[in-house]
Amino acid sequence: MKFKSLINNKIQEAFSKIDIAPELITVSDASKPEFGDFQYNGVMAVAKKIGANPRDIASLLAKNIDSDMLSKVEVAGPGFVNIHIDNNWLESQLTSIFKSTNFMIEKNQNPKTILVDYSGPNMAKEMHVGHLRSTIIGDSLANLFEFLGENVIRQNHIGDWGTQFGMLIAYLEEIQQNSNFDELKNLENFYKLAKKRFDEDVNFANKAREYVVKIQSGDKHCLELWQKFIDISLSHCEEVYDKLGINLTKDDVRAESFYNDLLPIIISKLDNSGLLKVSDGAKCIFLPNSEVPVIVQKSDGGYLYATTDLAAINYRNDVLKVDRICYVVDARQSEHFAGVFWTAKESKLCNHDVLLEHIAFGTMMDKSGKPFKTRDGGTVKLIDLLDEAIIRAKDTINDRANFADEEIERLAKTIGIGAVKYSDLSINRESNYIFDWDKMLSFDGNTSLYMQYAYARIQSILNKFNGEISGDVELQSDIEHKLAIMLLSFEDVLNRAANDATPHTITSYLYDLATIFMRFYEQSPILKEDIPANVKMSRLMLSSITARTIKKGLEILGIEVVDRL
C-alpha cells in the first residue's frame, strides 16, 4: 500500500480547496512522537511564494485535509502541519495485509523494462573483492525491481576481448598439449605464467600477437581456444555467484565480444550525427564543458571501452527496448559514463526518454582506511573472503545453542554470506566503507545477524503458540500504533529505494522495524495466560506481519533468514 501517497493526495486535495496551486509535496516521518505520525513541511515555501503568513496557510490547509484515515490534523511551529493516522483505519489495513500474500503492494500496471548491468568481471582473472560491491548492489536492485513488477533484464558485461587474450589462448594451447590443466585452477597464476612466457619467449610473443589478429578475424581454431578459456573463467565466476547467492547465469552474460561486429556501425552512426571529430588521427566526441573528449577509435583503428559501451546502449535501446539502464560500476568511472551517456543521447544512439544511470559506489576499505588488500598487499580473492565469512560465522554461533553439525554448516553459510552482503548494502552506496568482521557479525546494531535474530525470535513466538491465528488487528498502545505505521510504510520504502537505486533505504527501514518490534515485544505481552484472546490474536498478527516483512526485505537484498538462533 502506498501509504504516504495517500497522505500526499489528501494534502493536494486540500490545497485545491483553498485555491492555492500545490507545490512539490514533501511528507517526512516526524522525529518526535508529539509531532504526530507524519509532518507536512511545505507550507512555508508556498506562503513565501504568494506573500502570505505561513501559519494562516497551514491553518486553512489543516481544516481542509479530510479523510477517514486521519484522526487529527494540527498546526505546529511556524507553519508545520502534523498529521495523525486513525487507529481504526490502521487496524483495517493491517488485518487486510495479514490475510494477503503480497503485503497489499501494488505491482506496476505499466511495467518498465529495466536493464541492470552489474558484476562485470574480467575473464583473465578470478573475481576479487573489487567485484563484490557491483555484484551485491546490482543483484539487490534487480530483485527489488522484479518484486515491484518491472520487467528486469540482468546483464553481466564481462571483459573477454582485447590483446591480452591472444597471449592467454596461446598459453592455453600450450598447456593443453602438455595436459597440464591444473594450472587453470588458479586464474591469477595462469595469467602470470602466460605473461612470463610472453615476456621471455620471442616466438611465443609473436604467436600470441598472431592469435589476436586471428581471433578478431574469426579464425575457427583460435575462437575455439578462446571459448574454452572463457568457459573455464566463467565457471570460476559461477562458483562465487553460487556461494554468494547471486542471480546471474551464463544466459545473462553479454560480453564485450558480443558487440564486436557492431563497432564499425557505431562509428558510422556517430559520423552521420555530425558529432565525430578527428584529433591526432583519433576519432573523438568533444563534450560541452569538458576538455577531455570521448575517444571512440584510435589512430591505428582500434576501438576503446567507450565504443563498446555505446554499442551496448544502442543494442539495448533498439533491440531490448529498455526504459532504464542501471550501470552498477565504481564511482571512479563517473566521468567515463557521463561522456558516454551524453554521446548516446546527442547522437540518437539512444532515445531521449530512456533513463541512463550510473549507479556509482565507493571503495571497500580495511580498518586502517586503506583499500582492502591481503597482508602482503595483494588482491583478495572474493571466494576466499566468502569462505572466511562462513568460518567466522561458525565461530559466532557455535556457543549459542546445541546445533547439529549439519545445521551449523547451513547456519554459518546463511549468516556469514548474509553478513557480508548486509554490511555492504546498509551504507549509502556512494560512500567508501570500512570492512569490519567484528561489526558485521555482531548481534547488536544494524547488521544482518540482528535482523536474522529478530526474525528467529518472532518464529519462536509463533511456534510456541502453535495454533491458527485469526481475527482482527486491535491496536492497544502507542507502541503498537507506531509498529503499525512502520509496517504500512513498507511499500513506500521499496518504491523510494527503487527510484533512487539505494538499497540502504531498505536496510535502514528493516533496522527501524526490528527495533520498534523489540520495544513492542518488551511492552506488550503476547502469550501470557491472562491476555484476552482478541488481544493475543492481534499481537500475534502484528508479529506475523513483522516477520514476513523482515523476511521479504532481506529476500529482496539477497539474504536468507533462519528460524532459530
TrEMBL record:
CDD domains recorded: Anticodon_Ia_Arg, ArgRS_core
Residue ranges constituting the Arginyl tRNA synthetase N-terminal domain according to the UniProt record: 1-85
InterPro entries assigned to the protein according to its UniProt record, in alphabetical order: aa-tRNA-synth_I_CS (IPR001412), Arg-tRNA-ligase (IPR001278), Arg-tRNA-synth_N (IPR005148), Arg-tRNA-synth_N_sf (IPR036695), ArgRS_core (IPR035684), DALR_anticod-bd (IPR008909), Rossmann-like_a/b/a_fold (IPR014729), tRNAsynth_Ia_anticodon-bd (IPR009080)
Locations listed in the record: Cytoplasm
GO biological process, one term: arginyl-tRNA aminoacylation
Pfam families: Arg_tRNA_synt_N, DALR_1, tRNA-synt_1d
Origin: domain of life: Bacteria
Enzyme Commission identifier(s): 6.1.1.19
Keyword list, A-Z: Aminoacyl-tRNA synthetase, ATP-binding, Cytoplasm, Ligase, Nucleotide-binding, Protein biosynthesis
Enzymatic reactions: tRNA(Arg) + L-arginine + ATP = L-arginyl-tRNA(Arg) + AMP + diphosphate
Quaternary structure note: Monomer.
Family membership: Belongs to the class-I aminoacyl-tRNA synthetase family.
Stated name of the protein: Arginine--tRNA ligase
Organism: Sulfurovum sp. enrichment culture clone C5
